[in-house]
Amino acid sequence: MDPYLTARWLHILSSTVLFGTGMGTAFQMVWAMRTGKVETIHSVASGVVIADWIFTTPAGVIQPLSGLWLIHLAGYDLTEPWLLATYALYMLAFLCWAPVVILQLRIRDMAAAALASNMPLPHRAHRYYRIWFALGWPAFAALVAVFWLMVNRPGF
Fold first, then answer.
1. Could you give the CA distance from residue 92 to residue 114 in angstroms, rounded to a whole number?
2. Exposed, middle or buried by CB within 10 Å (0-12, 13-18, 19+), for 118?
3. Which residues lie closer than 8 Å to 138 by C-beta, 6 or more apart?
4. Residue 137 pLDDT more than 80?
5. What is the pLDDT of residue 114?
6. In angstroms, rounded to a whole number, what is the distance separating the alpha carbons of residues 83 and 86?
7. What single DSSP character describes residue 118?
8. How far apart, in whole angstroms, are the C-alpha atoms of residue 94 and residue 74?
9. Are the beta carbons of 125 and 107 closer than 8 angstroms?
10. CB 69, CB 27: distance < 8 Å
11. Which residues contact 110 (CB under 8 A, 6 or more apart)?
12. Cα–Cα distance, 25 to 59 (Å, whole number)
């Protein structure tokens, strides 16, 4: 198999998993939190945490590796302006995603404790959710911009 086509396939596949899982888990978490039902929030947050470890994390690692492989195979300079913008945007998305994972774990654990004690979800969980929600927007916008850069490769 052609190494360039293999690298391109891995890059496209991992970006699809990264973006698609992010959108899907975000939608599920928003929908669950809107219900206000502790059982639903716990169940969905548990699934979201697992999905992040099984799908998002490996795709997030494969993305830069396959990208660097593509850059090498295509003969681009690592410091081309559109690539520098891509690196910065990808880092922004990662810097938003890392705390989101921690917030998801905390929300899941607070929901489990509330469920076990037959209590409502604590206010702190709702505050964590608002932070989680706010962090999702710059990550989403950054990845949309990365897609645009990958397709257009502008010269700036």
1. 33
2. exposed
3. 92, 93, 96
4. yes
5. 98
6. 5
7. T
8. 25
9. yes
10. no
11. 121, 122, 124, 125, 128
12. 14
